Amino acid sequence: MSAAAQPRRTRLARTVAAVCTGAAVLSLPFMAATSASAAPTTSVTTTSATTVAGYPDNLDGWIRESLAIMAERGIPGTYNGIHRNILRESSGNPKAINLWDSNAAKGTPSKGLLQVIDPTFAAYHVPGTSYDPYDPVANITAACNYAAARYGSIDNVFGAY
Q: What pTM does this model have?
């Protein structure tokens, strides 16, 4: 294979992997929850890693842990609303960072699962969670707290917010 064909083949392989991953994520059954609760009890992976609070250390566990904290604090939101927004904002990558939009141009890039800028994260941080905007549970909980104040709930967010 020529050297020029290598990058195209690599891009194609990454694209196919991304599409297959997206299809797998979309094929997962959505867990219904009507209010802030740690409703879904099944893990989407077989990993034995858990968070300090005992939830699976994966997207499902981070959402469920956030919902438990939100329920304690009266912050509205559902598993489906959070999950939908995470997939749109970061594709489930807790280390995602947006370095190209208007926020980034102003020096405050959006970070984490729900793409929160530092000033918003600080203003809507929920006590008892990490002060690290890349921490999945802290990011979800702060973003949901912001969405509740601005839109009534993360469930009411269907685009960039």
A: 0.71
